[in-house]
What we know:
Elements: H1 2-21, E1 38-39, E2 46-47, E3 55-59, H2 60-65, E4 81-86, E5 89-97, E6 113-117, E7 120-122, E8 135-142, E9 156-162, E10 171-179, E11 183-193, E12 198-209, E13 214-215, E14 225-239, E15 242-255, E16 261-264, H3 274-282, E17 293-294, E18 303-318, E19 321-335, H4 359-365, E20 375-391, E21 396-424, E22 433-458, E23 467-494, E24 497-500, E25 515-536, E26 541-552, E27 587-600, E28 605-617, E29 620-624, E30 632-636, E31 638-654, E32 657-673, E33 693-706, E34 709-720, H5 732-735, E35 740-754, E36 757-766, E37 774-778, E38 786-790, E39 795-803
Parallel strand pairs: 6-9, 13-17
Antiparallel strand pairs: 1-2, 3-8, 4-5, 6-7, 8-9, 10-11, 10-39, 11-12, 12-14, 14-15, 15-18, 16-38, 18-19, 19-20, 20-21, 21-22, 22-23, 23-24, 23-25, 25-26, 26-27, 27-28, 28-31, 29-30, 31-32, 32-33, 33-34, 34-35, 35-36, 36-39, 37-38
Amino acid sequence: MKSNENDKGWLSLVALLAAPMAVAQPGDTQRYALEEVVVTAQKKAESLQDAPISLTAFGQQALENKGINSLADIGANVPSMSIEPFPINNATLRIFIRGIGISDAQITQDPPVGIYMDGVYIARSTGTALDVADLERIEILRGPQGTLYGRNTTGGAINLVSKRPNTDAFEFEQKFTVGDRYLLTSKTSANIPITDTLAAKLAFLHTEQDGFVENTGPGGDFGDRKVQGYRMDVRWDINDSLTLDYAYDHSELDYYNSMYQSVTPPLGDKGQAEPIKEHAAEQSVFSKKRLDSLATGMPLEESNTEITGHAITLTANFDAGEFKYIGAYRELSDSSYADLGGGAGSTEFRLDSHGYDGQATDKVNGGPTDLVKPLVTQRQRSHELQFSGDAADGRVEFLTGAYYFSESAIEDNSPLHHQLSADARVPGVPFRTHAVNLLSQHYKIDNEALALFGQATWTPAIMEDRLHLTFGARHSRDKRAAVKNQTDLNIIELYGLVMDLPWGTIDETDPSRQFDNVKAEKDFTDNSFSFVAEYDLSDTVNIYGKINEAYKSGGFNTRDPQRDGNQGPASDGVNYGFGFAEGFDEEKVRSMELGIKSELMDRRLRINADIFRSVYSDMQLNFILAGTVADTKITNAGEAEMQGFEADITFMATRNLLLMLNYAYLDAEVTKAKDVSGKDVSDEFVFFAAPEQSYTAAADWTLADADWGRTSLNLSYNYMDERNGGSRAENVKNTRLEAYGVWNARFGVSDMPFAGGNLSVAAWGKNLTDEEYAITAIDNQPQSDRSVLWGEPRSYGLDLIYRY
């Protein structure tokens, strides 16, 4: 299967690159070249070609052509990167770069891919699926970024760069997008000079669209979403050397979570859920094809995310260099409701947090339970000081700084409420009884982080100043504290009696899995270093070699079924010797990379490529305990290695034809892992979301360029190889995600003079062949051995843009 998909993908690639070449005009000898791409990946403005980083950048035009409005749209356009929605919260993204990411979203765990908005670190994965009101550029930094960016960048970093106001002139932009599934988007921005030294920029975003799976049961439809966001930026040039920037952003997302579609019936042992699997499967819908509709039994409730941020940047220029201060405060509130039932609209088998009225609740709750929507609230503050400049007659460029971060957050999934109910076959009882799981959770965290960092680049007076040596270092201190409260009851209702389940994990009197104000604390200290050697082979070709280190903070696992390591075997019968209180330690990575940045053929051909090898020690692996629905353990499994090759190729074949190919090969393996008895279990772990091959091929073809406007066609093919959907080898069969390829196109006329400005109109389509592909799969639902969320089906729309 895999080789066939690869062949299909490569044939598609060849067809894409060969077809446009047929229209190239060999006689066109007038000079033309690729435009320079400016990035800030090293916390300074520089050419993409001068940054010794495996880096992909999307400017405003590229974001527009590819229909990228948020991080969720990026994954398909960047090889070595995959992005999936979190199973029970579509506003939360699981981001992987080079196979490194986080499979779970908990406030007690940090993702290993750092996300930054204008230099401000965004700590939580929750809310990362939001559209952003006014982006100028997105930069994807692949590989560890431990010195300049710090903790939690073992996989890489993502820079979101917004447009800044200017005092040059009044500017206005309005974009409308309409499309299928009632898509409607409006983006408005205005740059307003106030005085010669003061300017403001206002941006507003509204977008809404229906999902592609109808809910034929009560409540909203799966995947429906509505986003509103606005942003205000103010820039004050206080004097010739001092500038103050202030930014305020606010985003709101109202949405309905998707429902997993059951693919295969539950043939394997479901452990704790074994007694209910028969009834759960009877009350579920199964299909290997993407269904247009599923049904909930209880009303599907709306979920809500709200994010607010403030940021101040003060920049002072001196003869000796530049001083910069970045201060930020951000708030997050996310209330997410999910229904993980079987899609048949059953009220007998339920996997939701709606109200429940039964014998169990009468006994343990004194009456019916109410609807509960888990709520996450978070506040974070950060301060960063940077001082940069040069010394030794310009032969040394340096950047040094200090960083402080603090956050507090609460995950509130209380009070006691319904989580699961179904008919069960209990040993010794000749007929089915009714089983109910009631749950209450409340978690709290308080984290602090402090770092000192520096980087210096020396150009020695040898080799015609072609050699550049860079050394970086970062010292980090990380303090984490968490509190867990949880009650988890498994109960059967039989002839008016309420009894604990003999196959359950706890009952109402057994405290083995009750968490009553269980506290946990951990401190971490890390020193990460980097070294880069660059050599300019010519003015347009340079090579580099680098060694980078980074670390990901340790933390705590709220889904761990044990308070600590003194409770004996966990719910899968294994005595791990640790629980929530012990938590897990930090992981460390060291990466070696060789790369080339080149522009050839009079800057018409750009080839940036690298090979890398990364070694992870004390790697954090998150896995579901066998036979459980949601119990997990996180262990510092040991060591892992990965190596790969990446290439970004851009070729201006003619003045009017631009060809692009971005390719990545990845080989990742867990090389050392031991269980609690010291046995080597390396073969039991695999890398999550690490495709062996992925690529994007695209062509931008200008069909006509005249005074009345420019007509262009953008065509792309995005390929993702098969990959694991979990980190345990035993789960691969049911969670494996098949390879797929998606065609996208955009045809438009731009820069048409209109009302003192210019007008652009474009028609676009995504997944033109309506490819059916799963973007995430799970095997731990009681009703199914394999359940999936599908990728977006074919969609189409029209953009109308006016710029003044």
